[in-house]
Design brief:
Elements lengths: L12 H19 L4 E2 L3 E5 L2 H16 L6 E3 L1 H7 L7 E5 L4 E2 L1 H14 L10 E7 L2 E6 L2 E5 L2 E3 L5 H7 L7 E12 L10 E4 L11 E4 L5 E4 L3 E2 L13 H8 L2 H9 L1 H12 L1 H9 L10 E13 L10 E5 L2 E6 L8 H12 L1
Parallel strand pairs: 2-11, 9-17
Antiparallel strand pairs: 1-5, 2-4, 3-4, 6-7, 7-8, 10-13, 10-14, 10-15, 11-12, 12-13, 16-17
Helix pairs in contact: 1-10, 8-9
Length: about 350
């Protein structure tokens, strides 16, 4: 997804980076012939309570500088998404889809052209000060640097601790699982159909996304993973699990969101319940229309108070910069984030 900044608090770093990041990403895709499409999306309200929240979203989007937002009535919804159900919707024209794997491949090519290199499989085991810089020991060898930038995602808090930082906020992994819509039923979704966020819950909720090279994705849910790289239900890492369970913030989060956590777990284990959630947006979706898709793991930072950190969280030091939370729209805004970090390093 290419996000335009509809959901983000006005004036936040997320909102600023979403707007500038979308523009920068489109320019990059055009420059390197990467497939993308600004197709727009619908945010659909299915009851009166959601209509009120949708009105707030409209105001927020306008404050964030989104252009061309349209308030739709039921008959206008059906003109754009004939199979979507809703009593009102917001059309966001400045959103789209892109081939992110290709974006990453081109970025690697550009780094190589500039004399840099990308080293993978390099689990960091030790970071120690050396002269005015650092020595980083990893599974791929040792590296020295004058300035350390930690963008380690699911392990960023651990890397910062290796560099001497105190781990206050902690990464708690939430797996997001997807289904694919079977080819013969993909006519039910034309582009992007999203729900209205519920402020009582910390996650957006399942939605429909058309993929740039074909196909429709439905999801994700948000279920606590038993490993930081737990992309499958059966993935368990004892060290990761113990680390999460020893964190008081997780227990406070679970205490605040008991019902949501239980519902997400049940939905993870039941295709029927997952389908029921999707039917709020597209009633004609059937359980047999769904086939297993992929999954991702959110590198979500959580405070000791049990609150999800919603904005970017960067810790600056004289010879280091730690990116300890990079929430959505991190992919859309990746180039703008990179430029911001480069400016801070300079």
């Amino acid at each position: 997804m290419l996000h335009a900044g509809l959901y983000y608090k006005p004036g936040s770093q997320k909102a600023r980076l979403a707007v500038s990041g979308l523009r920068r990403m489109v320019e990059f895709c055009q420059q390197h012939s990467i497939a993308y499409e600004i197709c727009g999306k619908l945010v659909v309200a299915v009851d009166e309570a959601e209509v009120l929240r949708l009105q707030n979203l409209l105001e927020r989007g306008q404050q964030n500088g989104l252009e061309g937002l349209q308030w739709l009535k039921p008959e206008q919804i059906r003109e754009i998404e004939p199979h979507a159900a809703g009593i009102a919707a917001l059309r966001v024209p400045q959103e789209g889809i892109v081939d992110y794997p290709r974006v990453c491949a081109v970025l690697q090519e550009e780094i190589a052209k500039s004399g840099g290199r990308v080293v993978t499989g390099a689990k960091v085991t030790r970071i120690s000060p050396e002269n005015a810089g650092w020595r980083i020991e990893s599974a791929a060898g040792d590296f020295t640097t004058d300035f350390l930038v930690n963008c380690a995602g699911l392990h960023c808090d651990r890397v910062s601790e290796l560099a001497g930082e105190r781990r206050e906020a902690r990464i708690v992994p939430f797996r997001g699982e997807y289904y694919q819509i079977k080819k013969e039923r993909q006519f039910l979704v034309r582009d992007l159909i999203y729900p209205v966020p519920d402020p009582k819950f910390p996650f957006l909720g399942v939605h429909f996304t058309r993929l740039i090279h074909g196909g429709i994705e439905a999801g994700p849910n948000a279920v606590l993973a038993f490993a930081r790289e737990g992309y499958r239900k059966t993935d368990v890492n004892v060290a990761d699990l113990c680390d999460a369970l020893a964190f008081s913030g997780l227990w406070r989060f679970l205490g605040k969101h008991k019902r949501m956590s239980w519902e997400e777990l049940k939905r993870s284990l039941s295709r029927r319940l997952f389908c029921q959630s999707l039917q709020r947006l597209v009633p004609e979706i059937r359980e047999e229309d769904l086939e297993p898709g992929g999954a991702g793991v959110r590198a979500q930072a959580m405070s000791p108070a049990g609150e999800l950190i919603q904005d970017f969280h960067l810790v600056r030091r004289p010879n280091a910069l730690h990116v300890l939370n990079a929430p959505s729209p991190a992919a859309t805004a990746s180039l703008a984030i990179g430029e911001t970090i480069a400016g801070m390093v300079e």
